[in-house]
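DM from R.C. (forwarded with permission)

"hey, sorry to bug you on a friday — could you get me a structure for this? deadline for the figure draft is monday and I only need the backbone to look sensible"
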Amino acid sequence: MTRLRTNSRMAALFLSAAAVTISGCATTAEAQSTATQITPAEAKQGAEAHPQLLQEFGGAMTGTHAQYVEQVGKNIAVHSSLSNARDAFTVSLLNSAVNNAFAIPGGYIYTTRQLVGLMNNEAELAGVLGHEVGHVAARHSQRRQKAATRNSIIGLLGSVLTGAVLGNSQIGQTLAQGIQQGTQMLTLKFSRNQELEADRLGIQYLRSAGYDPRAMSTVLQSLANQNALDARLQGRNDARMPEWASTHPDPASRVRNAASLAGNASGVTNRDTFLTRIDGMTYGDDPAQGVIEGSQFIHPDLRLTFTAPNGFYMVNGTRAVSINGQSGQAQLTTAPYSGNLENYVRQVFAGLSQQQQIAPQTLQRTTVNGLPATYGTARVNSGNGQVDVVVFAYEFSNNQAFHFMTISQAGRSGVFSPMFNSMRRISANEAAQVIPRVIDVVTVGSRDTVQSLAARMAYTDAQEQRFRVLNGLSSNEGVVAGQKVKLVVRGR
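My reply, with the result:
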């Protein structure tokens, strides 16, 4: 969560972005329609969307890490037949803690630093970027855009809230859109066939570039393992990444197919080069966007903190923090503030639905840890019965307010009361204590073990599991003296 910008243009991007993550083989018709070049119209479309996407996904990183990713991305992209010129492609490393990658028409390719940090060699990086190029070469985006024009944007969101709490009613879908606005999920998902086709094309590009084509299956396996670990740590039964948090469908279902496509072929992986080049890269939340530490969210620049309710987990998006659990969902974000908290809350409610007016039954003023606050509740009919929508706003200055928006079944909004009451300012000293985590590449010593190395990870829980997933190690696999491995440590 950066400065919690408002008035986003993501609805427009939703229809133009050729998103997603390494997550589907096409039919014969699809496979035969791969593009032979980047058209002027595609170049124009990409150029217009590019700066907006950068803004919405944490911004583009600069420096040696970004330069390396750009180099690998351009080298693999020229094998797609979209263009023989490396300069025809724009490859961006995004400052995001979500495991994601996507591409848009015009030769624009993106991956997050978090996903790069999960990789273990250059061939995996090339495979992920090649997969995204494959979406563009097969013109998957254009097919999804055509489908999107036949549906409403709200319907396409496929919100987790709609199914879990609100049912399939129009009001449920609209409220779900409102509570998720600003999170990193407004990019078109491809069909399974399209995802598998992009996997096939990515493997084809790996072979052409001399990389080990098996890298596609290994990076998918690492992603599946990370998703499963996240689910365990967050107390979820579903090992897939939540829909609102990432554009990945479940990568675990594609590992075997990618391995079959690669066969027994081999090639270079450039493991040590890759690890050396990503050494020192930020891992996890960037303090400039706020950080999640257990159940606590801290934003050192905005000087605020709050604690999620027991049994809930958080995801820090570019424009909002999402708080999710079995009994409800919530979001912390902001809106334009003119100095009147009651008007602020009413405006948030008014913006929830285009189909009907939603207003709080009552507004109540209070003070929370010294912060002036106002909150209101609206009871709304949904496909699964009535739900309570709460907006709880805090004044931090004459021109800055923040608010929680929550949705829960009627009569159960009290589950969020501890969170509402936990919001407070933090001191300058507290803000200064927020230090980023970074990747530290080390060489395994003769006395090192998985357990001794994992003990150096900058986490208080699941150190060994985190270390194994980060380094692509199975549950029984050990380390060998002289090999390079990744640790996540506190930066300086």
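R.C.: lifesaver. Residues 6-33, 146-172, 178-187, 241-248 have pLDDT under 50 and may be disordered.
me: no worries. The longest helix spans residues 215-234.
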